[in-house]
Design brief:
Layout: H1 6-24, E1 27-30, E2 37-40, H2 66-109, H3 117-137, H4 149-164, E3 167-186, E4 194-209, E5 215-234, E6 239-246, E7 258-260
Parallel strand pairs: 3-7
Antiparallel strand pairs: 1-2, 2-5, 3-4, 4-5, 5-6
Helix pairs in contact: 1-2
Length: 264
């Protein structure tokens, strides 16, 4: 085949695949309130270990083959389209969920002030910063009034364990980039009402050993973007955080629904 070698062909495909995933993929590190993951911008350690073999002078570049080149280009284009279309489809669906939820919230607020959109937004923003502060300080009492008893107990167990292990999660420049309501449940009374919010934020997020002061997880010089789903429940005084789900814990955005009890 005019010097074309199947091994070289596959090697070129593998190299191109790695480059695509290096561009589209992002590294993750453990930390943050609830033990979530942050995506490091531009970090791509996964490229390590992919090298061409030229042992003993047995490597031959061969001549270019038009069919092979066309196949490689076709594969790369398909992968690139999938990599680009995935996030676009996700954004479109999450924005649709937001639109449906805001419409429902505005309708509910006409009869129930607890569904006031501006009030909800204020509760969500306050809870976000208080919960992150309590996590970083390993003192859940700082955010007790912003969390349900269930989540308070869960976070306290986690941060108490961090204290015993001499671990401290450092959170700097914590910034809430956006909060979008994406699902809700409204029932008779207030103790069953639920609101799901898509949280987007960034922070310098890393963990140190308290004794050595050395970084043991994350990076201390790079802000990381993260996106999570926060579940709020209603109390007599405010909306409080009840659960944090990572994106990979929700297989389908259809998990988030607008459910209203019309018998109210």
């Amino acid at each position: 085949m005019n010097g074309f070698r199947f091994g070289n062909f596959m090697k070129r495909i593998l190299i191109m695949l790695v480059l695509v995933f290096m561009i589209s993929g992002q590294a993750t590190v453990f930390a943050r309130a609830g033990g979530g993951h942050s995506s490091g911008g531009g970090h791509s350690s996964s490229s390590g270990g992919w090298h061409e073999s030229r042992s003993g002078g047995s490597y031959h570049s061969g001549t270019s083959h038009p069919v092979a080149d066309a196949i490689v280009i076709g594969i790369i284009l398909v992968i690139a389209i999938i990599a680009v279309s995935g996030p676009i489809m996700y954004k479109a669906k999450i924005n649709k969920k937001k639109s449906e939820s805001i419409k429902a919230i505005k309708s509910l607020s006409r009869k129930d002030y607890n569904w006031n959109y501006n009030g909800i937004k204020k509760d969500v923003e306050e809870a976000f910063y208080k919960v992150q502060l309590a996590w970083a300080e390993r003192d859940q009492d700082l955010a007790k009034e912003y969390m349900s008893e269930k989540l308070y107990s869960e976070h306290k167990r986690q941060t108490d364990r961090m204290i015993l292990r001499k671990k401290k999660n450092i959170l700097k420049n914590m910034t809430l980039l956006g909060e979008k309501p994406i699902g809700l449940k409204d029932y008779n009374g207030i103790n069953r009402d639920v609101l799901w919010v898509d949280i987007e934020a960034s922070a310098i997020d890393y963990t140190i050993n308290e004794q050595t002061k050395k970084v043991i997880q994350g990076q201390d010089d790079e802000a990381c973007y993260f996106e999570e789903y926060w579940k709020f429940i209603r109390t007599e005084t405010r909306w409080v955080l009840d659960e944090i789900k990572q994106k990979n814990e929700v297989g389908n955005l259809d998990f988030f629904e607008v459910e209203i009890d019309n018998k109210k």
